[in-house]
Design goal:
Blueprint lengths: L1 E7 L2 H11 L5 E5 L2 H10 L4 E6 L8 H7 L4 E3 L9 H9 L5 E5 L3 H15 L2
Parallel strand pairs: 1-2, 1-3, 3-5, 4-5
Length: about 120
């Protein structure tokens, strides 16, 4: 089971999407302020950090970069760019990122492919 800590502008929406589309045996979701969320990942109490902001790479990942380091963080989407499902899968498979940042307006398109890719990677 994956444990995901969601924060930022669309934290509640991410949680609702995940809980609607995945079972409790597959994914547990926490909604927390960014500092608490990223500390849960650093301590191993959560597996992944999902952050949302207006640009995708600013506030969504600032705390995660400071605490987890830049190499553990991935800007999944930016204002004006939302990757396709195949790109999400490739990005997840191509690294060992623990934190993902995205534009809050892209959440509806990205969360399901992102969680699917993480579940597949963690089989």
């Amino acid at each position: 089971m994956l444990k995901i800590a969601c924060c930022g502008l669309a934290a509640t929406r991410m949680k609702m999407i995940i809980e609607k589309n995945f079972s409790k045996e597959e994914v547990e979701v926490l909604t927390l302020p960014d500092t608490q969320a990223v500390r849960k990942v650093k301590s191993g109490e959560a597996d992944y950090f999902f952050g949302t902001c207006h640009t995708g790479g600013g506030g969504s990942l600032a705390t995660a970069i400071a605490i987890l380091g830049y190499s553990n963080c991935l800007v999944l989407s930016r204002y004006g760019y939302c990757p396709k499902e195949t790109e999400v899968k490739e990005k997840v498979a191509g690294g060992n990122h623990k934190a993902f940042g995205m534009v809050e307006g892209h959440v509806d398109k990205l969360i399901i492919p992102l969680v699917k890719a993480l579940l597949e990677k963690n089989k």
